[in-house]
Amino acid sequence: MAVTLYRQVGKGKARRYKKVNLGKGRRPADLTGPYFLRYSLADGTRPWDPVGDDLDEAIAARDRKQAYFEALNGRVAQPLIWTGGPAFRSGRRL
């Protein structure tokens, strides 16, 4: 599931949301906030999550949200947890 970063342009009835184009070699220089995240939930809704006025913080929030959804979908490898069971014993006394 993709998490997209948008910024608010205009005020009042003239308010619009524009997608922030962040690709390789595309670092926007003078974009002002506020910034919002948009993504789809399991029930089909697409919420607008405000993430603040700073572009760097908004990018970090987008990356965290994307990692969260990837973990929910099981695309993150589970860490190996050592239980101390017999498969890990060497047979030597320490």
Your description of this structure?
There is one protein chain. The protein contains one helix and four strands, in the order ββββα. 9% of the residues are buried. The model has no long low-confidence stretch (mean pLDDT 79). β1 and β2 form a beta hairpin. It is globular. Helices cover 19% and strands 20% of the residues. It has one domain. With 94 residues, the protein is of the alpha+beta class. Strands 2-1-3-4 form a four-stranded antiparallel beta sheet.
Our count of domains comes out at 1
How many β-strands, per DSSP? 4
The ordered string of helix (H) and strand (E) elements is EEEEH
Q: For the report, how would you describe the main beta sheet?
A: 4 strands, antiparallel
Order of strands in the sheet with most strands = 2-1-3-4
- Fraction of residues in β-strands: 15-25%
Structural class based on helices, strands and sheet pairing: alpha+beta
Tell me, rounded to a whole number, the average pLDDT: 79
Task: Report low-confidence residues grouped into runs of 5 or more.
Answer: none
Shape: globular
Helical proportion? Answer: 10-25%
Terminal-residue CA separation:
50 Å
Helix count? 1
Radius of gyration: 21 Å
